[in-house]
Amino acid sequence: MPAPSDPDLLARAVRLNDDWFGGMATPESVRWVDNQQSRWGSCSPGDRAIRLSRRLEGMPRWVVDYVIVHELAHFLEPGHDESFWAWVNRYPRAERAQGYLLGWSDAWNMEAPPGPDRDD
Ligand SMILES: [Zn+2]
């Protein structure tokens, strides 16, 4: 299955915003980036842009969606505090996705995905 294009990613992010954030974390752009060797995703809350590591490309949809949800939550809460995780954990597979990414982080020497019990 080919990786979703950037417009596909944006459409998914818009959908995730509707489903889990009540439309309050509207994204403007989502794109794959090659130059992100140590992080799974990042965002610029100012222009509501999300960047995803290309290493996510072949991963299950629910894992990629989790990373998008994580970045959308940063549009509402910049840090990784309790209110941030309250948003992220509305996504039902958040914990499973963190575990999935943690395994790959070790394999690829990437930063572990931040979790409620870890700082990053
Ligand atoms: Zn984060």
Would you write up a description of this structure?
The protein has one domain: Zincin-like (2-Layer Sandwich), CATH 3.30.2010. Strand 2 (41-44) and strand 3 (49-53) form a beta hairpin. The protein has helices at 6-21, 61-76, 82-88, 94-108; strands at residues 29-33, 41-44, 49-53. The protein has a three-stranded mixed β-sheet with strand order 1-3-2. Helix 1 (6-21) crosses helix 2 and helix 2 (61-76) runs antiparallel to helix 3 (82-88). With 120 residues, the chain is of the alpha+beta class. It has four helices and three strands; from the N terminus they run αβββααα. The chain is globular, with a radius of gyration of 13 Å. It binds zinc ion (ZN). Zinc ion is lined by residues 70, 74, 80, 114.
